[in-house]
Design a protein that fits this description.
Elements lengths: L26 E3 L5 E3 L4 H17 L24 H21 L3 H11 L6 E5 L5 E7 L6 E6 L9 H16 L5 E7 L15 H20 L5 E7 L2 H6 L7 E7 L17 E5 L13 E2 L2 E2 L12 E2 L16 H11 L12
Parallel strand pairs: 5-6, 5-7, 7-8, 8-9, 9-12
Antiparallel strand pairs: 1-2, 3-4, 4-6, 10-11
């Protein structure tokens, strides 16, 4: 789903792992959230459930168009290139992308890229202006930060919708700095997010591809941050499917899933990470109505806020699907506390 929050490509909200085997002609509800259909009506039930999932995803948000705009190839760097040199090269790349967009009579894309460049102050570790685009932007002083939050967005996050993703990153950084100056936020639009209204948003293919990029990126990011920096993954909506498939090293201390339709796993024990996993959902988030099912590789699986999933609960308040990082919300406070390691004792208990 679209996020308010770089390199890889991703698919789908995710595939669940909860399963059970029904017998006879009836249907059995399983603990993992999936449905097992008897042989008499299995095909019909699979069709109906697939339609239900598709409708639940497609109705609330419409897909955003990404025009095919000409842009330069992304800048390349040596593995040990310092952040400042990456920032400068990518600002130049954005300026060239603006010029080409103007030549192609794409004023909307040109204006959005100018906003991203932020009058020469933007800090992009990665920028690729081709097609839907990819970008990895840093907020704060990464090289001195000992707390780093990496935001992973959901569907329909592109260069054309980037501003809403950036707004969430800015809000989080301001909230973190108010309590701990040595912090940085990294907005990781490092994969081709699926369209909200698409078949790819119902499967995990793009998430698998994105996870293969995100894991190595986190390893590199650790070397760019301050000594002993603690990293946290904050994963919104379809981004939670990406994070659930990402192998994380010891530098990643926490993973928070919010606005998640499911991860494709039946429980925390099945995730690719050994870090602490948190889950929260606002009472105003429509995604709570998405059926947590998996049939024929389509669907989301166990709800991460279900006690059976085993994640640690965090308070999200009454926010809607795109509001978790808005200033003044309980969800923003909770996510900041996870990043800073200052969660209250009564929030630390695992589900179940």
């Amino acid at each position: 789903m679209a996020t308010g929050t770089g390199t890889g490509s991703g698919t789908a909200f995710g595939t669940g792992t909860g399963a059970g085997a029904g017998t006879g002609t009836g249907t059995t509800r399983t603990t993992g959230g999936a449905w097992a259909a008897g042989p008499g009506n299995g095909r019909l039930r699979r069709t109906l459930l697939a339609a239900l999932v598709a409708a639940a995803v497609a109705v609330p948000i419409s897909a955003a168009a990404s025009p095919n705009v000409p842009a330069p190839a992304p800048a390349t760097f040596a593995e040990d290139a310092a952040p400042q040199s990456r920032y400068a090269a990518n600002r130049a790349n954005i300026a060239e992308a603006v010029r080409r967009a103007e030549e192609a009579d794409r004023p909307g894309r040109a204006d959005r890229l100018r906003t991203m460049e932020a009058s020469g102050t933007a800090q992009f570790l990665v920028f690729d202006g081709r097609g839907r685009g990819r970008a990895v932007e840093v907020f704060g002083d990464l090289e001195s930060a000992d707390r780093v939050a990496v935001l992973v967005p959901g569907s329909d996050t592109t260069l054309d919708t980037y501003e809403r993703f950036r707004a969430g990153a800015v809000s989080l950084q301001q909230r973190l700095r108010a309590e701990h100056p040595r912090t940085a936020v990294v907005a990781w639009l490092g994969y081709d997010t699926p369209g909200t209204v698409s078949t790819t948003v119902l499967t995990a293919g793009r998430a698998d591809e994105a996870a293969a990029e995100l894991g190595p990126f986190l390893d590199r990011l650790r070397g760019m941050a301050g000594p002993g920096a603690r990293l946290s993954l904050l994963c919104h909506s379809y981004g939670s499917v990406v994070c659930a498939r990402t192998v994380t090293g010891p530098a990643v201390s926490d993973m928070a899933l919010f606005g998640s339709p499911g991860t494709g796993a039946g429980s925390v024990r099945e995730l690719a990470t050994g870090t602490r996993v948190w889950a929260g959902r606002g009472s105003g988030d429509w995604i709570g109505n998405v059926p947590h099912v998996r049939l024929g590789g389509i669907g989301f699986g166990t709800d991460p806020v279900d006690r059976a999933f085993g994640a640690r609960a965090f308070t999200a308040g009454a926010v809607g699907h795109s509001d978790y990082l808005k200033p003044g919300t309980a969800s923003l406070d909770s996510l900041a506390a996870i990043v800073l390691g200052t969660t209250a004792p009564d929030s630390e208990a695992d589900h179940g």
